[in-house]
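4.2 Preliminary Data

To establish feasibility before requesting continued support, the project team ran the inverse folding procedure on a target of 72 residues. The structure was first converted into the token representation described in Section 3, and no sequence information of any kind was made available to the design step. The complete token record follows.
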């Protein structure tokens, strides 16, 4: 299932939007479903993570919008 981690934690992410603005939260929100995700490479930041974290931190994109997009 696509985005299985994100979908399984969607309620948590919605309830804790400030968590999603932390480094750990960004990783949890956007990285764990990536085909390239490796637990031992947590400090690696790809372009997608950089872009998504910037949009989330600047409130251009909300956690709810991301969840809605992957649910449709």
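Position-by-position output of the design step:
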């Amino acid at each position: 299932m696509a985005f299985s981690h994100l979908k399984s934690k969607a309620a948590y992410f919605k309830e804790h939007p400030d968590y999603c603005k932390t480094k750990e939260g960004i990783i949890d929100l956007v990285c764990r479903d990536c085909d390239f995700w490796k637990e031992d490479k947590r400090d690696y930041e790809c372009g997608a993570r950089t872009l998504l974290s910037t949009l989330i931190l600047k409130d251009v994109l909300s956690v709810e919008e991301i969840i809605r997009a992957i649910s449709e």
